[in-house]
Amino acid sequence: MHYQFGATALTGRRDFIKTAAIAGLAAGFPASNLAQQSSRRAPKRIPTGKARKLLFLSDSPAAYKSLLESIKSVREFDFHISSIQVDYQKPREIAKSVEGNDADILVMCLPRIASSSGHIAEVMQDLNIPVILLPPNPDLVMLEADLAAAFRIRGINALLAHSEGEAVELLKIVAAPRILQEKRALIFGRPFDSTSVPAHNLNQDYVYEHTGVRIYYRPIEDLRPLLESVDEAGARREMERWKREAAKIVEPSDKAILESCRLYMLLRSMAEREDWSAFSIDCLSFSFSPNPVLPLPCLAFSRLRDEGITAACEADVCALLSSMLLEAISGKPSYFCNVSSLDVQKSTTVLRHCVAPLKLLGPEAPGLKYNLRDYHGMGRGAVPEVEFPIGLEVTMGSFSKDLKQFLLWPGRVQPGINDTDRPSFPNIPSSKMRMFCSNRVEIKIKQADHFLQSIAGCHHVVIAGNYAKALSHEMFRMNVELIGPSDFTAPA
């Protein structure tokens, strides 16, 4: 079956958590009260610096002397450990022990002999720090598995270690600050009301709590007068660079290229002056207007991405955050794209968009070959049409609409057809408007049917390389559920 997508993508759910280093993380979902209990909670912000407060609960602290010494010897962090002996048959006393400590991380070692984990998760349901559960006997993990599942349905970030060594490694993962913590993103448009991808379920506080990113909004009209102050000579040098390095200039005029370069110069100066990590503009609110309020930002966004500044299209908040995350983890610019179509039999997906980075392979690698095109054949704007390297291994990902899941799919670039010049209105010879965006890449993926039913929305983000392990660790820190194929290696 072959699926062709328009502006609205199919959505679905199928849970999967996997990482080569960490096993046993299957979540449990009760039949009743699921809606109340299944939300994943925003974690407490991990402090900067090396100091971390660790609460260690067990029924026999002396039995874990070696583990505590291993934790203290971790070089990356300075763990301040409060070791408390508890009776696991008295859940409310355990809850009081936790409430009385302003801990950053909780380690729980359940007793060797017990018939139930009791009501521990119920009395600790307000917990907002990661919990690491260590079984005293790796051959008998039933109590720990059940408690982990009970924690997770309440949104608590519970991780299950199968050895003392792994408990230390998990500690080092969750002790690190979230990679996007305190990053600042500026969106020009209506707050959480993108023309194409609105996010009315989100707000600034929610985004910050779940990702660490601070989102700000300004009216699109604020940019217009600022364009007048842009250094004209600098904008012209940028225009000449685009023209000089292009393999071919197909349609855009010098005027269109120069207008885009002015917008680039303005945004870059704002990033430097105001410390912005990312920008987005509600561009579809004016892209097809006969009198656009701004130059089309495609060319500007390509250059910003190449220079390490996230530039996401269409004021899509979730895709903006996805771009910031993947670029921070990889150190490479991302390709922000539409999932245009999917072929289940071939297990491929076609991704399209008008903005693509030239430095997809990394800041030190040669840039991709490109032609300069106009925007959708409309005789305005300027867009780099790049050549994606055949055989390139890539990672495709996106946050879900509520930021509680992250779709992670490895893939490999395939040879594809060049259909970007297909007309939107083939029966109207006078129309030159193109149906598709200027950039097209076909990606081979595993379990395309699973991807289809797990799809996070119309926009996904692609980076070169495979970063599944690093992303899985970051999802632990964010308490975000990872969704993907059963094997995170790219297809051959």
Could you characterize what this model shows?
With 492 residues, the protein is α/β, with parallel strands linked by helices. The chain folds into two domains: 44-175, Succinyl-CoA synthetase domains (Rossmann fold, 3-Layer(aba) Sandwich); 184-483, L-fucose Isomerase, Chain A, domain 2 (3-Layer(aba) Sandwich), CATH 3.40.275. It is built from 14 helices and 20 strands. The chain has helices at 34-37, 65-72, 91-99, 120-123, 142-152, 164-175, 204-211, 223-227, 232-245, 254-274, 298-306, 317-330, 448-454, 468-478; strands at 2-4, 51-58, 78-85, 105-109, 131-134, 158-160, 184-188, 214-218, 248-249, 278-281, 310-313, 335-343, 348-353, 370-373, 383-386, 393-399, 405-414, 439-445, 459-464, 481-483. It has a six-stranded antiparallel barrel with strand order 12-13-18-17-16-19. Strand 12 (335-343) and strand 13 (348-353) form a beta hairpin. The longest helix is centred in the middle third of the chain and has 21 residues, at 254-274. The model is unreliable at 6-38 (pLDDT under 50).
Give short descriptive properties of this protein:
about 500 residues, alpha/beta, Rossmann fold, L-fucose Isomerase, Chain A, domain 2, 2 domains, six-stranded antiparallel barrel, five-stranded parallel sheet, 14 helices, about 20% strand
